[in-house]
């Protein structure tokens, strides 16, 4: 997994509408790039809604918010519509963005091992450098973690 101080790798992906999205298009802006397991699950919904409810505060601090999961464009569209999310979600169906950032890892649950998303948030500065990696995400208090309140 990438660490603070490292350059954030650029990527070419698609958002919920199938439109191209890359990290380089946000150069000159701070970015909250958050990786989460799945749309419409309790923890992921709580995290997205916390970011939604605090979106204006994050923007006031200069942040653009981008979510990343392996869900399809259609699932992202439904998730955004249901919860009125104001930020883009990347449909990383081939895990390529996850692999660049090291968030696609072996996980264990109830004695079973499988590959999956490790919930992680990367804070990226205007020059494209990772300034912080939040690994122990508090889904209902994530904005406070980002703004270090």
TrEMBL record:
Domain spans labelled Thioredoxin: 2-149
Residues annotated as the enzyme's active site: 44 (cysteine sulfenic acid (-soh) intermediate)
Catalyzed reactions: a hydroperoxide + [thioredoxin]-dithiol = an alcohol + [thioredoxin]-disulfide + H2O
Gene Ontology terms describing biological process: cell redox homeostasis; cellular response to oxidative stress
GO molecular function (one): thioredoxin peroxidase activity
Documented EC number(s): 1.11.1.24
Functional description taken from the UniProt entry: Thiol-specific peroxidase that catalyzes the reduction of hydrogen peroxide and organic hydroperoxides to water and alcohols, respectively. Plays a role in cell protection against oxidative stress by detoxifying peroxides and as sensor of hydrogen peroxide-mediated signaling events.
UniProt protein name: thioredoxin-dependent peroxiredoxin
Species of the source: Marinobacterium mangrovicola
